[in-house]
Amino acid sequence: MKNEPIDKTNKNLLKELEELRFQLNEANETIEAIRTGQIDALVVQGEEGHQLYTLKTADHAYRMFIEKMAEGAVTISTQGLVLYCNTQFANMVQHSISEIIGTPFESFIAAENRAEYEVLFEKCWKNDCKGEVWLLAGEHKTPVQLSLATLELLEGVSLSIILTDLTTQKRTQQQLLESNIQLEEINRALETSNHDLQQFASIASHDLQEPLRKIQMFTSIMQDKSDRLPHDAKKHLQKINDAAARMKTLIIDVLTYSKLSANNLQLECTNINEIINELKEDFELIIEEKNAQINVAELPYLKVNKGQIRQVFQNIISNALKFAKAGVPPVIEITSRRIAEKCFESPGQQDGPFCLLSIRDNGIGFNDKYVHRIFSLFERLNTKDNYEGTGIGLAIAKKIVEKHNGMITALSKEGRGTEFQIILPMN
Amino acid sequence: MLKTRILLAEDDLDDQEFFSDFMQDRDDVILMPIVENGESVIQLLDSIVNTDELPHIIVLDQNMPKMNGLQTLQHLKNSERYARIPVCIYSTYTDETLIKNGSALGACVVLSKPFSKEGYDQMIDTLCKACGSSKMTTTKHNR
């Protein structure tokens, strides 16, 4: 009972399919007949009843299309005379269509391109081809692309050429070329100024150290004879020495910073634990003096510039030791974990492509609104009388980390210690 | 005790003074007449007829007019007569490049100029030590 309507629909559908197949066959046959020239008129049943289409009307549609298209179109005889052209071509050469028909096509090609055109004209009878020439347009010349294709018509073989105006394209190309040249020049200027700047920093630093060393030497000599000096003078000598020592550190730090701009990063597989162990030895005296503790978890091997990454840890650990709370032994915890993405909020991932290194201390900390400022050159949050340093250390650390395609940030609260976080790629 | 004979090439007058002043306090070293550049080093050495009177160590300032430290070093190492004399390069600012180039050309030590009297004492100790070890190698050669 239930199957009956379904059966009926199925039969209907099959019948419909049969009809459609018949129509499709008929249409295919008609198209084939038109293509091979077997018919010159056909009747199509449209919305307004039967309509007669002749080949003439079809031809008209093509002519309309050729007439309306944006390219110039010409048909040329084997002798090279123009048999037909569209309005666009007439506009391009600034002549009327009647003037054009019957003239040699060659006469519209700029003299310097005629030889080229002749080659194309020879070649095109065997193979369709393309070429670029200048087209004469009254007083002016227009760059065009010629697409040559031969047509075998009942009246014999003829050549049809489509002409595409290349003015805009050429202008764009020219502009591109010019801006490329400009870019190259700017690039070169930048490189030069970068190089100059590095040279300047290097020379300035070298030459600044010369007189500075003299100041230190002479004060050292005077301090040797200080038993003959009044107490005040001794104190002042010490101040001169301290200032000179500070300036020396500054110069070396500026030099280090400027050298980081050079593109000469040499990477090697580096054991980060080894770096920390070396630094612990370097800081041995101050660690003992402050009774500091540095706890290091197992850290990964990273493909980095060892010297530079050592500098990063050196600057951060030295900060942690320097900015300890009075009377509280510094405790520094260094840990690491693999993360999925290059961002500080990234979730952990055992085989993640990045490594987040954390250096946490229990020092004086800072207000976290200053977090971006601490990585700027010469930025200090504490007076230098209380805490020595040049204010370049963290700027150097940031630059190094960024040169390694990494990121650095700091989390802190006043009085609650600081945590530096560094993200570096695993390879 | 044989005193270590040091030849210093240094164009800076203050540095000449530091060097000679601090060396006067020691009885283990003798400073030969100070010369002002590399060319004068060669001239002075060439004028010494008796090989026994050549310096035990030559200290070259890197930044000198005419012939700088490294150039002089190269010249000395290419000479059969002087190649075995240990050479120290010293400079106000000693960077990795200078250490690398100096070592490559055969300097026995590359140093930064000292900042204090103690620094000079240490430097002269280092020089004497460098001489001592090279004297040993020389004797080995002779055997």
TrEMBL record, chain A:
It is an enzyme of class 2 (transferase). InterPro entries: BphY/WalK/GraS-like, HATPase_C_sf, HATPase_dom, His_kinase_dom, HisK_dim/P_dom, HisK_dim/P_sf, PAS, PAS-like_dom_sf. Residues 58-128 form the PAS domain. One of its GO terms (biological process) is osmosensory signaling via phosphorelay pathway. It catalyses: ATP + protein L-histidine = ADP + protein N-phospho-L-histidine. Residues 203-427 form the Histidine kinase domain. One of its GO terms (cellular component) is membrane. The keyword Phosphoprotein applies. GO terms for molecular function: ATP binding; phosphorelay response regulator activity; phosphorelay sensor kinase activity; protein kinase activator activity. Transmembrane segments: none annotated. Residues 10-37 form a coiled coil. The keyword Lipid biosynthesis does not apply. Gene3D superfamilies: 1.10.287.130, Histidine kinase-like ATPase, C-terminal domain, PAS domain. Keywords: ATP-binding, Coiled coil, Kinase, Membrane, Nucleotide-binding, Phosphoprotein, Transferase. Its EC number is 2.7.13.3. It holds the Pfam family HisKA. This is histidine kinase. It comes from Paraflavisolibacter caeni. The lineage of its organism: Bacteria, Pseudomonadati, Bacteroidota, Chitinophagia, Chitinophagales.
TrEMBL record, chain B:
Pfam families: Response_reg. It comes from Paraflavisolibacter caeni. InterPro entries: Bact_response_regulator, CheY-like_superfamily, Sig_transdc_resp-reg_receiver. The keyword Phosphoprotein applies. Residues 5-128 form the Response regulatory domain. Keywords: Phosphoprotein. The modification 4-aspartylphosphate is found at residue 61. GO terms for biological process: phosphorelay signal transduction system. PROSITE patterns: RESPONSE_REGULATORY. This is Response regulator.
